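Subject: two folds for Thursday's group meeting

Dear M.,

Sorry for the delay on this. The cluster queue was jammed most of the week, so I only got both jobs back this morning. I'm pasting them in the order they finished. Each block is the input sequence followed by the predicted structure tokens. Could you check whether the formatting survives your parser before we put anything on slides? The first protein is the one we discussed after the seminar.
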Amino acid sequence: MADGRESGGAGAGERVAAPGGQVATPGEEVVALYDPGDERGRVTGAAPRSRVRALNLPHAATGVLLRDGRGGVFVHRRTTTKDVNPGAHDCLAGGVVAAGEDPLDAARRELAEELGVRARALRPVLRRWYRDDATHCLAHVYEAWWDGTALALQASEVAAGWWEPAQRLRERLADPSWPFVPDSRALLAAWPSWWLDTGPSRRLDAGTS
């Protein structure tokens, strides 16, 4: 997961003021800030992405585990230009929640941007706070099922990607030396059945968050 989105929002030459008077540089994303004492996700303001990173401010992020319906999950390697965990492996497509954005909408957007998958039906599976020296976020984790259309990997975010049997990925994650995004590793540990594909529910509501 690791808060993937790099930029977006302001046009060339613009300086955008986030709520609270903080100014984003041209092209910089403005990120929603969250109350770290609220598990449900209360928004407290917004700040430019650079300030969120520099001060490790509490925000929200999304991650989507994409399944192929045959026991495989999509794994990717992050580009070496990423601002957090460059070059590490991950199995959650996602990023930060922008100011004024709903987490479910952010999850759909990130899945489309990073992998080219436009899935409306996302199943929410986990919401919890995560913090380390690089990120402090309320993680919203979802799962989705691939419809068989060709994937389109975002060159600025994804260096390589492939389908990995979930059981094989589970074994690889047992090796702490394998370079894997730490927040995604922790989130999977908090979701004990992540490697089991039960299939999309007939009752799944595409608007559920």
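Second protein, same layout:
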Amino acid sequence: MKKTLLLCLTLLLSITLAACGTSDDSSTDNNATNDSDTSENANDNNQDTNTDDENTDDANTNDNNDASENDAVDLTSTSLSVEDAISAFQEKFPDTSVSSIQLDEERGELVYDIDGFDDSTEYSAEINQTGEIIAEEQEQQDADDRYEELMLDDYITAEEALSTASEASETEGITARAWSLEFENGSPIYEINFEDMGSQEVDVYIDAESGEQLHVEVDD
């Protein structure tokens, strides 16, 4: 009787241990499977996130490139004419003659830079598109300084000079960034500056009296 009871207890213990072992193995397998699924999901999420980041970076790059291209100002579309800019200059500095004019972009805005003179002093001023003088300077002339007065009524307009300069083959596909009018070797000359977003720069020189293209300088 005792042997039979002992045998039954031994058999019951064996069954219990076997069940526990199976349960542990199953639990281990389930944990391994869950860990594998979690790792795969994490990798998938990382890949999706990286793809989204790359797409965002590409979109930002394209937007920046588009913005750079769109930032180019139109030199022919100004709210303040050359004549009005000169009037603002001469109102600030009465009885002066104008020796040079430049239109250029500063901080996204077109600004006139005008130089002038009288019998003893030279003047300069920067004028924005509202006609406001945003910077000015004046100093005494040196004894050997020589100035010549621009006579706009005798010259082609800046718009005409820009149009002629744009016909030069060297300026194809490049944006005009600035123009200036001043005397060079005794003649009034327009200099039209073209520049792309890379490193190419082209300057076209136009005779202000005849409207003839004089020469082109290319700086790669």
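Two things I noticed about the second structure. The two ends are 110 Å apart (CA to CA). The chain is about 40% helix and 30% strand.

Cheers,
T.
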